[in-house]
Design goal:
single chain, about 600 residues, eight-stranded mixed beta sheet, Immunoglobulin-like, five-stranded mixed beta sheet, alpha+beta
Length: about 600
């Protein structure tokens, strides 16, 4: 009996997770099958997780007694805050149901770990396990953790297997062999949108009006299965900038008559359009109406807003962003090519030369960065091979610093990050851009918003990633902060590009003011982006050109007219001119008038008859 007890105990302790492909050998004494199915019904915002735990005895010399218990782990999602975790735990536990192979309810106990540790569910061994009677239980619960959804665009994520997972275990003392199988599948109904992305490889089966996607257990070690459905997504954006009162001299009653007496001009970037995901922007409300809109050298859309300087105000812009991607294709991605071919194609291009230079935070010429870039490039044959090598290097070398992400978040640059400096998305992107440029691959920074879903955020933090220039494709997006073997590259519909940069600046917010604003901060500036349904009437909304009533947005720089207007309205010299010029004009008119009248009187007297 002691032999059986020892075997039972180490099996219970070693495999107490919810994670599940293999075929057991005839010589196995025990087989433990853990089969997890993540099921989704179109329209829901949750998935149902069903784990089947099946313990069988293949050797008639052994059995498992009806004593002890089996513990299962229900994880917390890693990037949620404490309140979100507690709410989701309650949701999971309210839907938790455990039954045996006959469909009868099985009693269980629950222990909640600290935030991030998850829930531990203990189920008693309610029956003796013999060769003729297997032990089988079913654990089912609902969760929002494994799904993100925007309209018909749905991401479903599975669980990975730990790197120390074993599929066969031999007990030298007893001479017994136990096989462990971890089956995993994602199941959808037939109404699902087309499959657009998948990782890792899978096999598909259609039965009973459902689609079953099966993932190999060996490929799940360290990798979370991932399926993305849908080719379009619609997001709503709400930008608000509360402008401060900076002028305490000019009373409002005067500026209401003559606005130019007290005016600040704010320059803000609007969400841009982007070809990779066919990102299109539609405006519902823009207040106040911008005095001008122009496009800079990187294609960013910048708008100028005139607001009173002697009172607090608000710039508010609401609208929608539509993004698209292709269905899943089996052929090689269009952005991949031989590295030598790539270099030949970009050779001599004046356009891309500026995307290879060194800057303060992209220390392309630094010896250490040059050395690492050369090592990573060595023996790589294709452009994609080099990108993957850089991606893995950045992920392995840097460690995301959550504390920095929630603090002042001072930018340190590529080299400092490489040497172990605290890193967030900026450093991941900065380091990868520096490596790419050192390898002769043109790249720049993209700023926007990531991991979007249908939840309206209270506060949203900007995210930075990388864009690489590829001939015949355009700008290819890569997000090294994703930290996964499932490299985030190409069309990414859960990321909205707001603006891009080829220099050390990462913001296009500027204020033109006569009140000597020295320290411009982001205080009062908020952006919310969240998914919405597809029934918005986009054709009734406005485009960029509609905002300024002209056919085409000005290229590269604002017009001479807006430049002179900015100088006049937001500088001390300009305001002096605004005040003095009208007075001078009135004086000139008066002088001319008096001169004309005097001349007329003199002439009249001269022509009058003498008495």
């Amino acid at each position: 009996m002691n032999t059986f007890k020892r075997i039972t105990i180490w099996i219970y302790i070693l495999f107490s997770t919810l994670l599940p492909f293999s075929v057991y050998a005839a010589s196995a004494d025990f087989v433990i099958d853990t089969s997890t199915e993540v099921s989704y019904i179109t329209g829901n915002n949750f998935v149902t997780v069903t784990t089947t735990y099946n313990r069988t005895v293949k050797n008639s010399s052994y059995y498992f007694p009806a004593s002890g218990e089996k513990t299962f782990h229900i994880p917390d999602i890693s990037d949620s805050n404490e309140e979100e975790v507690r709410v989701e735990r309650e949701y999971k536990l309210n839907s938790l149901f455990i039954k045996d192979d006959k469909g009868s309810k099985v009693n269980y106990s629950v222990e909640e770990g600290n935030i991030g540790e998850g829930i531990f569910v203990s189920v008693p061994n309610y029956k003796t396990t013999t060769p003729s009677s297997a032990y089988k239980i079913f654990i089912t619960y609902n969760t929002h953790d494994l799904i993100t959804k925007v309209g018909n665009f749905v991401n479903i994520i599975g669980t990975s297997l730990p790197t120390d997972t074993v599929f066969e275990r031999k007990d030298e003392e007893n001479g017994t062999t136990t096989l462990f199988n971890y089956y995993f599948s994602i199941v959808t109904d037939s109404d699902m949108q087309p499959l657009s992305k998948a990782f890792p490889t899978f096999t598909k089966e259609e039965k009973d009006g459902k689609n079953y996607y099966y993932f190999n257990q060996a490929e799940r070690i360290g990798n979370s299965p991932y399926l993305e459905f849908g080719t379009s997504a619609l997001y709503r954006f709400e930008l608000e900038y509360k402008t401060a009162k900076t002028d305490t001299l000019i009373p409002e009653k005067y500026s209401e008559v003559f606005k130019a007496l007290s005016t600040n001009i704010y320059e803000l970037s609007l969400p841009r359009e982007f070809s990779e995901t066919n990102q299109k922007v539609y405006f519902e409300n823009v207040s106040p109406t911008p005095s001008d809109i122009y496009r800079d050298a990187e294609g960013n859309i910048l708008a100028l807003f005139e607001v009173p300087a002697n009172q607090e105000g608000t710039i508010k812009i609401d609208g929608y962003i539509l993004v698209n991607q292709d269905e899943l294709k089996e052929e090689s991605p269009s952005y991949d090519m031989e590295y030598s071919e790539y270099l030949e194609k970009i050779k001599g291009s004046e356009y891309i030369r500026r995307y290879l230079s060194s800057t303060k935070y992209w220390e392309v010429s630094d010896e250490l960065i040059q050395q690492e870039a050369s090592t990573l490039q060595k023996d790589q044959k294709t452009l994609l091979d080099i990108v993957k090598a850089n991606y893995k290097f950045v992920n392995d070398r840097l460690e995301y610093d959550q504390q920095k992400a929630t603090s002042e978040n001072e930018r340190i640059g590529a080299k400092a990050a490489l040497l172990g400096g605290a890193s967030v998305c900026m450093e991941y992107a900065d380091l990868m851009i520096s490596l790419l440029r050192s390898q002769g691959i043109p790249s720049r920074a993209a700023i926007g918003y990531a991991n979007l879903d249908e939840q309206i955020p209270e506060e949203q933090v900007r995210h930075q990633w990388v864009q690489i220039w590829v001939p015949d494709y355009g700008w290819l997006s890569v997000d090294p902060t994703f930290e996964s073997n499932n490299m985030k590259i190409g069309q990414m519909m859960d990321r909205i590009v707001w603006e891009v940069f080829n220099n050390d600046s990462l913001s296009n917010i500027r204020v033109y003011s006569a009140n000597n604003i020295k320290n411009l901060t982001s205080e009062g500036y908020t952006v919310k982006i969240y998914g919405v349904s597809d029934d918005v009437k986009l054709n009734e909304l406005r485009s960029y050109a509609d905002l300024v009533s002209k056919e085409e947005i000005s290229e590269l720089s604002p017009s001479i007219g807006i430049f002179s207007s900015t100088m006049l309205k937001t500088t001390t010299f300009g305001k002096a001119l605004i005040i003095t010029i009208p007075i001078l004009i009135v004086l000139v008119i008066l002088i001319i008038g008096i001169s004309v009248i005097t001349h007329f009187i003199k002439k009249r007297r001269k022509n009058s008859p003498t008495v």
